[in-house]
Structures are given as C-alpha cells and as structure tokens.
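Pilot study result, target chain (75 residues):
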Amino acid sequence: MQVAHIMSAMTLDQYLSDNDIKEADFASLLHVTQSTVNRLRKGQIPGKELMTAIFEKTEGQVRADDFFGISDNAA
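Predicted structure:
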C-alpha cells in the first residue's frame, strides 16, 4: 500500500504569522496592495491567478482548499 504525503492545511493568516511576514511585504511579492492581502487574511477568496501566485510564493503551504476550509481529513 502506497501512502501519499499530504501537507496539513494552513491559512494565509497562519502562514504570514508563523513566518513573521508583514502584509505589505507579501503584497509586494504578489504585486497587489496591502489591503488586498488583509482581505485575503480575513477570508476573501482569491481569483485563479492570485491563488496560483499565493501557492507559489508560499511554496505550496497555502492552497486553494485552505481558503475554503477544506481539511485533509474531509470525507
């Protein structure tokens, strides 16, 4: 039986807090405003292009599922 390694869910808020990254600095990486990052931290769902950029800049630690609250344990 093969077991796949699945990273646990991490919200953007958790990622920024855990890595001590300021909203303005992350916004600069994404080429968006600090207020956009703030809205994303509070639950706004990003569009496809922005979600792809978030996934890439967080090295896969923040995924689309994380914005929808879908856990790895969901049946």
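One observation from the pilot: Residues 48-57 form the longest helix (10 residues). A full batch analysis is planned for the follow-on phase.
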